[in-house]
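Thread: sanity check for a docking pose with flavin mononucleotide

Original post by kr_44:
Hi all, I'm comparing my docking run against an independent structure prediction. Below are the sequence and the ligand SMILES. Could someone generate the full complex and paste the structure tokens? I mainly care about where the ligand ends up relative to the chain.
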Amino acid sequence: MKALVVFESMFGNTEAVAREVATGLAPYCTVEVRNVDDADPVVADDVGLVVAGGPTHAFGLSRPRTRKAAADQAVGPLVSRRTGLREWLTGLAPAPHALSATFGTRTATPRWLPGSAARGAAKRLRARGYRMLAEPENFTVHGTPGPLTAGELERARRWGERLGVVWAAQVGTRR
Ligand SMILES: Cc1cc2nc3c(=O)[nH]c(=O)nc-3n(C[C@H](O)[C@H](O)[C@H](O)COP(=O)(O)O)c2cc1C
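Reply from moderator J.T.:
Ran it for you. Here is the predicted complex with flavin mononucleotide included:
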């Protein structure tokens, strides 16, 4: 069985989280990590777990105008330049054979800011018939460009490991 980790990222923080999640999952399955720019809207038959992650923008998944705002603040080119998780999920074909999980990044302060890309992504996956393996998870960054808060990469790896354990228990997969 295979897991597909699709990420959207402006400044690289969500990409770093996605790669740690994949490392955590790796003992349990083959893992493919894809930038949403290059992600196929059809999930292959051998993919049993779809993990989707993106940055929280304006309390939810990014939109073209928030990605433009991110580009205006970036010192270099954005990591995801062509599309966003919202658009990918909207075009995603149902895959009754696959489970899914979502994560997002967001600012650590102010703590009271509502909204999460992870929750928005989970809502869209459920609407397309995907069953969730875990609750949406959030990881925090300093300010808008990051870096990630101390310890978040380790937490991302552990979250990936937990997904692997729960998935293996459900479908009996182990590499
Ligand atoms: C236009 C814009 C809107 C944002 N809105 C929010 C928000 O509503 N809540 C929040 O916690 N973080 C918000 N952020 C901060 C992002 O979540 C942060 O930049 C992101 O987690 C960094 O991940 P990345 O490097 O993968 O893009 C916003 C950032 C941008 C650029």
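The chain has a mean pLDDT of 95. Hope that helps with the comparison, let us know if your pose agrees.
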